[in-house]
Design brief:
The chain has 531 residues and is of the alpha+beta class. The protein is built from 13 helices and 24 strands.
Length: 531
């Protein structure tokens, strides 16, 4: 692979790559605002100017202050080139930290801050703002402007999710290019010129497509802000856990940003993965953290003529006793397209090895608005993982029915008890009323749903934000996610709870910890994605 030198370091590159691209792939950051690896080159911010050494360099005339003469004298300087636009050439020497390049960066930075309000104390971007970062590295001195700055519109409502502050904007046009090139919706544009530039929404329109929060996310400064996150938290208090979106079968890689002091998630950000979601996420995915924290099941419940709350251990004992009174082949097993592969696999193992049941059903959410960008028609993150659990390690097993099939089997007397993992479906409690008459309906749920209202035994389990696990997306690729926040006291992942339930029925499963479960997953569930 050909290489070039960047500040003395050898940088390999692929043919056709620019200096910026090649450096970025090696983890070397050349200061920039307008460049983004997933968008076309604008080369408008001029922050990434570099010096390219050559035998016959291009020089520009300038007047340079001569302290001895006390006057400006004619001189010259090397002509700098935007590294986001300049192609990488084998053997060339590039300087991003030469005196001329650093001087140019300092002047560009000062120019961008001339009319900026510097309202960092109230700006949501504070702590992760490129203006702040590059002021420290490239300028580090007060701006010299003493006249009144140019004032522009503030707190402009662009749409249901986004607020715009034109005074903070550096006119990088990332938001415009994202809407044009990724979403295919020319809803944003630039108006006026010079220091009166600002981003505007097309007449008669709002910024209301399915990727508005991503439009805000690509902004390198605090010009575009999310109404969902606005004034909610300071980023330096947040920690990030690597996770996978629960919105659909695409399985976008993301970060769950949470505050460990409050044990609460405050936002979701996309995590780069060229094989899956590149750099992007949709609005529904970025807002899915709300449902991870709302309507949580935190207390075990028994319904036997009357409803009562019990301890976690008591609910497992009651469930074991109830299931022990039912013939194994009469127990319906409801897997979940919303739960992890580990949860589904252990439930399938529990069905086969403890209960002796092969009556499998999969509960899943109904459809949603899909598109050709990221949104898969299946808005469940792990249908493939649930089905793989049904097929077993050898890939041979029974087929899984739907919730409608389960209700038919209940009506036909084929199912006398149910063990269900969550209940991610559109059915309501009235639809599931027939399950109330069963000998046992055991629900292992993290959130309130249709089944939790009719279950005879409700056992709370961890949500995906409270555990380590994996999903298998529509491409058949398994992707791990990490625990972010702590589960309520005493609440464990469903797979762990099922091990306790098997032990209570005197038929312990051959798993002790998560690594044991992962090591036993069906082959189709363990192909890892490289991010």
């Amino acid at each position: 692979m050909p290489t070039f030198k960047l500040d003395g370091r050898e940088i390999p590159f692929e043919p056709g790559e620019t200096i910026m691209q090649a450096a970025w792939r090696q983890g070397v950051e050349i200061p920039h605002y307008c460049w983004h690896p997933g968008l076309t080159v604008a080369a408008s911010c001029r922050m990434c100017l570099v010096e390219i050494k050559a035998e016959r360099p291009m020089l520009m005339p300038q007047l340079k202050w001569d302290a001895e003469k006390g006057a400006y004298v004619p001189s010259d300087k090397p002509k700098l080139t935007p590294s986001c636009q300049a192609p990488a050439v084998a053997g060339q020497e590039v300087l991003a930290k030469s005196s001329e390049a650093l001087n140019a960066q300092a002047h560009v930075q000062e120019f961008l801050l001339l009319n900026h309000p510097v309202d960092c104390p109230i700006c949501d971007q504070a702590g992760e703002c490129k203006l702040q970062d590059y002021w420290q590295t490239s300028q580090a001195k007060l701006k010299r402007k003493v006249t009144e700055p140019v004032h522009k519109p503030k707190a402009v409502r662009f749409g249901p999710t986004i607020v715009y502050d034109a005074e903070r904007c550096v006119m990088c046009t990332r938001c415009v290019r994202f809407c044009d090139e990724v979403v295919g919706d020319h809803v944003l544009d630039v108006r006026e010129r010079g220091n009166k530039n600002e981003i505007t929404v097309s007449p008669g329109r709002e910024l209301d497509h399915k990727y508005t929060l991503m439009t805000e996310h690509v902004c390198p400064v605090g010009a575009l802000t999310s109404r969902d996150f606005r004034f909610k938290a300071r980023v330096w208090f947040l920690r990030a856990a690597k996770s996978v979106c629960t919105g659909c079968a695409t399985g976008c890689n993301d970060f769950l940003d949470y505050d460990p002091r409050h044990n609460r998630i405050y936002r979701i950000r996309p995590r780069d993965n060229a094989q899956v979601n590149k750099f992007w996420m949709c609005d529904d995915g970025m807002l899915s953290y709300h449902r991870l924290q709302e309507k949580r099941v935190t207390q075990a419940i028994l319904r036997n003529g009357q409803t009562s709350t019990v301890t976690h251990e008591a609910s497992i004992t009651a469930a074991a006793a109830a299931l022990g009174r039912v013939a194994g082949d009469k127990v319906g097993i409801v897997l979940s397209a919303q739960h992890s592969s580990e949860d589904n696999f252990v439930l399938a193992s529990f069905a086969r090895d403890v209960l002796g049941s092969s009556r499998f059903y999969v509960a899943a959410l109904g459809g949603w608005d899909a598109d050709k960008i990221l949104r898969n028609a299946d808005n469940n993150p792990n249908r493939a993982g649930a089905l793989a659990a049904v097929n077993g390690v050898d890939g041979v097993g029974g087929k899984a029915g739907t919730v409608a099939d389960l209700l038919k089997d209940v009506a036909g007397g084929l199912v006398e008890a149910v063990v269900a993992l969550g209940w991610a479906s559109v059915e309501d409690a009235a639809t599931l009323a027939p399950l109330r008459s069963l000998k046992a309906t055991v629900s292992l749920s993290s959130h309130v749903g249709a089944l939790t209202e009719v279950a005879t035994t409700l056992i709370p389990v961890s949500s995906i934000a409270e555990m380590d696990g994996s999903f298998t997306n529509a491409q058949g690729t398994s992707q791990h996610f990490e625990r972010a926040i702590l589960a309520p006291e005493g609440v464990k992942p469903a797979w762990h709870t099922l091990l306790a339930l098997a032990k209570a029925m005197n038929k312990p499963l051959a798993f002790n910890q998560l690594s044991d479960v992962r090591g036993s997953l069906p082959p189709k569930s363990v192909q890892e994605a490289r991010s």
